[in-house]
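So, does this match?
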Amino acid sequence: MALPEAATAGAVPCSSLPLCDGFESVPAGGPPNAALWSISQPDCSGAGTLTVDATQAHSGKQSVKVNGGGGYCDHIFISNASAIAALGPQVYTRVFVRLGAPLGAGHVTFAAMKDGADKGGDVRMGGQDMVLMYNRQSDDATLPVMSPTGTGESVALAADTWTCIESHFDETVGTIDTWVDGKEIAGLVENGTPVADVSTQWLSVAGWKPLLSDFRLGWESYSGQTMTLWFDDVALAAHRIGCDL
């Protein structure tokens, strides 16, 4: 798949994007900017917490810190619904994430988007088998397939390190592309052509084309893993954003 040219901070100012937040506009210790984010705990609430934090930052002095519990109801997210509505069918996301521990064997989510075209379920990004993966809530399909071949085509995320993750969802044709620290990850690409033990499970739903309606960051665990993690320099646009600030 041809890669769109990554924008740089000099070429496309952060302030011109539909969403670009480094969490510097509100005091540490409270919730993020209410004009941009709401707090989301779907279905039930538990032990999960989040706050703007001044102990870690990718840039500036602050980020969002999430203390995610090990049960489903311990989930917590920040949610933005306005930016995606302004994008059209090309949805590019960019987020810096810092995990307090490596991803474990069990399934977890740290980013999610509601898909109105797929029974209202979520398209989720997180981890399983210690690597980065996507999960489609409605049928539990994963990208890549959680096989030795599939997981070998994804990537583990280092703990205690800021990692830049970019995604591209094309709602017109139903494709997905993903970059980690600027490098395209083969196991996290769905270009419409089945790749054995990588994208075959995702493509088992013929004609999948998402209709995304929000963007959420936080933690949701289905197998007991707890996590402290941070998010910073979050951006959404109709073109690739890149990891430069």
Observations:
- The radius of gyration is 17 Å.
- DSSP finds two helices and 15 strands in the chain.
- The first helix runs from residue 82 to 85.
- Residues 1-11 have pLDDT under 50 and may be disordered.
